Each structure stands twice: as structure tokens, then as C-alpha cells.
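Appendix B. Raw example, untouched.
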Amino acid sequence: MTVKTANTSVVVERRGAVTCVIIERPPLNILDLDTIRELRTKLEEEARRDGVRLVEIRKGGLATGFSAGTEIRDHFPERAPEMLREFHSLIRSVLYAPRPTLAVVEGYCLGGGMELAMACDFIVASVNARFGLPEINLGAFPPVAAVLLPRLIPEKRALEMILTGKWITAREAFDLGLVNRVANKPDLEEEVEKFRNAIVRKSPRVLALARRAARLGSREAFESGLREAERIYLDELLQTEDAEEGLRAYLEKREPKFEN
């Protein structure tokens, strides 16, 4: 069953015990404020719906990748507070969802898109997936990744991605422990199905309890870290000329001239 409303950027497909929440904003699935809000609302609704045992997040058929991140124009000082508030609410909805979550990643998974994927419990990726945090090239940094990524992969590799903007392949992400499974594109759905079956055959109540218990040790640290990362972003980063220069340069399609 597919649930779609007019002018929507998020489509819901219900497949028995599995709900697929599909981002439909081709070609790059950029997450603007409306899409972020719609994604959060539908994720929360589906994760609480009776009978759902797994929520998957994936791209629509016309998009070239999972998501290339949040809308650049929403990073300027006049819009950044609202953008961070809404996006971080989405991340919390995924992290603390009452059902397990799985990101199915193909193509580009960058910036806020990568943060969304790594907030999920599991990631199954196509071999063509590319993960990256390019914010540093724009005179910014990714608050969620700054807090969460060093807990998911070795800290030095996390810092390399955050501070240099380096992209990694799906195989590299698997080797680092960021991704659970990697499959060739023709075999991706088969691999997702195998992983999905390993989850949905378990007791949904026990899964929910085990998931909640597994996050006990990290929730408080994540929340305090994210609050401080938000403060640094809004009160310190956005006061710099380099942050403004990086965003302007991107929109004007030129190299930034950072002056410290």
C-alpha cells in the first residue's frame, strides 16, 4: 500500500510489518525545511502504527542518491536556528523511535543525509553509495555527526571525515562499522530482504525493550553533546565571516576565500 498526498516530498509504502518512508525530492533529495518536517511527521506516525515492526528510510526511484544533505540556504544566520531545531528533532525521532529503523542507501549520502542514515539502527548500502560530510568546505561543520560519528567509528577516522570533508565508499563504511551490509546494486533488495527478515521475525515488544536498553548509556551523552554543538554552531560559527563566505561561495559557484 502506497500513501501519497499532493505536493509531497515523502511517500509511505506499507509492506505488511515493514513501512518504507521514501524521500522523493529528485535529483539530490535535498532536505529543505518542509521536507524535514514532513519526514519527521511521517516517521513518527508510522513508527507508532500498530503492526509495524521495522521502518525503512530510502530514496525514490528518480533520485540519484539517498540525500545530498540539508538546503544550503537554510544555513544562513536568519534561518539556521529554525533549520537546526527542525533537523535535530528529526534525528531524535529516528534515534528514539519505538521501532527499529533501517536506512537503505544508494548513491550520494552526504551531510545531513549521512547524519539521517547514521541515526538509524542499521544501514544496508549499495556498493555505489558514497558517504561524506562536506560542510567544512563551506565554512561550517555537521553538529549531529560531530557528536555521533566518533561513537560509531574510530575517532581519528571520524575527525578525518569531519575536518577534511573526505568521502568514503560503501566498502570503507562497512570496514569502519558504519554500515551493516553492502551489496552490488542488482542484489541490494535481496540483501535488504534478508536483513529485514532477521528483524521482523522477532518479538516486536522485546525488540523495542532491547533497543531502548541498548541506548541507555549513550542517550544522555548524545543530548548534552548535541546541545553544546548547536550552541557552538549558532553562537560562534555563524558569527564568523568565513561561515558567510563559504555559503556565499557555494551559491555563487566559486572557490571560497577564507580569511580567518
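End of appendix B.
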